[in-house]
């Protein structure tokens, strides 16, 4: 076995290759959490906001401006945005990153920064709007 | 079996109507084999063979028939004929299969045989599995015991003890025969040969789950790398092609949970 390993040029850079991937568990954790939210919460949100309300199957004042803003600009509203916007964003970013690797688009180190970076930016924006609404 | 019994069996076979013995219906099937003969050309080419098959003809039987009767230049690996040695893996119509466990009766029309995907081809259907063996060795797939073997005392022999429940935790993952079909099925291994891959990660998990083992820490350092569990994107084809139903995809993804725990613990311990 040693003989094979020593013939391989790639085995020379052991120290670089044995670097622990401390960031990957974080991305994977956000991806998993986002997947759960995507599967469980988003269909319900779409059903209420995008199907039942526009079809007039729910009373229109259910989501009137006053009611909607008081619901959203609160601690439960903050958690709602985290679960329905932020975590699914990281889920999608993870999928896009791996999808781009699969079809050999760009390089993974850059894609990683772009994907998770935009997910983080959009999450901050969404949560920022909620916080701003809570403070105003 | 005594002579009488053999005679009795023959008589009973003769008495059975031919309709009941479907295995004797031979017909001719056409198979194409991807050839690579580096001595004569750097190009691969397809070669066609017509051979007699019956319901019990495995792909390995067919290759043996070609080698013995039609074309002695064909190269391929095989040994046990019973899905234990893991040598006869080939691509059948683009799907990794064991030759001995694949029956030609299940194929209508084209049968295209190629060497296992994602490995360098040495000759015809023979591939170089060195990279797979390297990955396997890297995860230390053997029991690592903190207390090295004590001198054997015949009056008080010590054995490893394990309850059926402890055995059940890793038993499924212990059925791997190192045939490499999962590496041919894995698109991530196809893109990045440094990825440890399904079988190595599964065997690492198998030993991590073993109550007699204490080498988990050493293995986690290998698993928690970008080229360890984190290169897996849960395609799951490895588990579909596994001839021993090991379910590597489950093992690798349980390995992700373990690697995440390992990272958390490392963060808190500093």
From TrEMBL, chain A:
- In Swiss-Prot or TrEMBL terms, this protein is called Fumarate reductase subunit D
- UniProt KW keywords: Cell membrane, Membrane, Transmembrane, Transmembrane helix
Tell me the Pfam families matching this sequence: Fumarate_red_D
Quote the Gene3D superfamilies the UniProt record gives: Fumarate reductase/succinate dehydrogenase, transmembrane subunit
Q: Which superkingdom heads the taxonomic lineage of this protein's source?
A: Bacteria
Entry keyword annotation includes Transmembrane: yes
Question: What are the transmembrane regions?
Answer: 26-53, 73-93, 114-135
TrEMBL record, chain B:
UniProt pathway annotation: Carbohydrate metabolism; tricarboxylic acid cycle; fumarate from succinate (bacterial route): step 1/1
UniProt cofactor note: Binds 1 [4Fe-4S] cluster.
- Per UniProt, which keywords does this protein have? 2Fe-2S, 3Fe-4S, 4Fe-4S, Iron, Iron-sulfur, Metal-binding, Oxidoreductase, Tricarboxylic acid cycle
Domain (4Fe-4S ferredoxin-type) spans: 167-196
Cite the EC number: 1.3.5.1
Which cofactor(s) are needed, names only? [4Fe-4S] cluster; [2Fe-2S] cluster; [3Fe-4S] cluster
CDD domains given in the database record: fer2
**Which InterPro entries does the record match to this protein?**
2Fe-2S_ferredoxin-like_sf, 2Fe-2S_ferredoxin-type, 2Fe2S_fd_BS, 4Fe4S_Fe-S-bd, 4Fe4S_Fe_S_CS, Beta-grasp_dom_sf, Helical_ferredxn, SDH/FRD_Iron-Sulfur
Q: Which SUPFAM superfamilies match?
A: 2Fe-2S ferredoxin-like, alpha-helical ferredoxin
Region Disordered, residue ranges:
1-23
Q: Pfam families under this entry?
A: Fer2_3, Fer4_8
Q: Does the keyword Transferase apply?
A: no
Q: Where is the 2Fe-2S ferredoxin-type domain?
A: 31-119
Residues forming coiled coils: none
Enumerate composition-biased segments (Polar residues).
Answer: 13-23
Catalyzed reactions per annotation: a menaquinone + succinate = a menaquinol + fumarate
| Group of enzyme by EC | oxidoreductase
NCBIfam families, alphabetically?
Answer: dhsB (TIGR00384), PRK05950.1 (NF004616), PRK12385.1 (NF009051)
Q: Name the protein family.
A: Belongs to the succinate dehydrogenase/fumarate reductase iron-sulfur protein family.
Protein's name in the database: Fumarate reductase iron-sulfur subunit
Look up and give the organism this protein is from.
Vreelandella neptunia
Phylogenetic classification of the source organism: Bacteria, Pseudomonadati, Pseudomonadota, Gammaproteobacteria, Oceanospirillales
């Amino acid at each position: 076995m040693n003989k094979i390993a020593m013939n391989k040029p790639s085995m020379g850079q052991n120290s670089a290759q044995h670097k622990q991937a401390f960031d990957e568990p974080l991305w994977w954790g956000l991806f998993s959490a986002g997947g759960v939210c995507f599967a469980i919460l988003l269909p319900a949100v779409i059903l209420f906001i995008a199907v039942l309300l526009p079809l007039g199957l729910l009373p229109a004042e259910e989501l009137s401006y006053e009611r909607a803003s008081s619901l959203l600009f609160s601690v439960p509203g903050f958690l709602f945005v985290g679960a329905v916007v932020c975590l699914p964003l990281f889920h999608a970013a993870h999928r896009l990153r791996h999808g781009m690797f699969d079809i050999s688009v760009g390089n993974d180190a850059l894609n990683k920064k772009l994907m998770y970076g935009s997910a983080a930016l959009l999450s901050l924006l969404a949560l920022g709007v909620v916080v701003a609404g809570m403070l105003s | 079996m005594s002579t009488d019994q053999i005679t009795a069996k023959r008589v009973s076979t003769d008495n059975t109507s031919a309709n009941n013995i479907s295995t004797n219906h031979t017909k001719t099937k056409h198979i194409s084999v991807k050839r690579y003969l580096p001595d004569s050309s750097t190009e691969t080419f397809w070669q066609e063979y017509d051979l007699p098959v019956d319901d019990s003809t495995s792909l390995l039987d067919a290759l043996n028939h070609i080698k013995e009767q039609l074309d002695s230049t064909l190269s391929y690996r095989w040994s046990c004929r019973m899905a234990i040695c893991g040598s006869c893996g080939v691509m059948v119509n683009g799907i990794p299969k064991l030759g001995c466990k694949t029956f030609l009766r299940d194929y209508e029309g084209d049968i295209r045989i190629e060497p296992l995907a994602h490995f360098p081809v040495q000759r015809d259907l023979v591939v170089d599995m060195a990279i797979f063996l390297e990955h396997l060795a890297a995860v230390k797939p053997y029991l690592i015991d903190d207390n090295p073997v004590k001198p054997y005392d015949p009056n008080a022999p010590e054995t490893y003890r394990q309850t059926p429940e402890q055995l059940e935790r890793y038993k499924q993952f212990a059925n791997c025969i190192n045939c490499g079909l999962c590496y041919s099925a894995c698109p991530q291994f196809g893109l990045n040969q440094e990825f440890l891959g399904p079988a190595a990660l599964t065997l690492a998990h198998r030993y991590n789950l073993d109550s007699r083992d204490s080498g988990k820490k050493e293995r986690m350092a290998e698993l928690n790398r970008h080229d360890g569990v984190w290169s897996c994107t849960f395609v799951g084809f490895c588990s579909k092609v596994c001839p021993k139903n090991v379910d590597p995809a489950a093992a690798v993804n349980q390995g992700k949970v373990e690697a995440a725990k390992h990272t958390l613990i490392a963060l808190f311990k500093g």
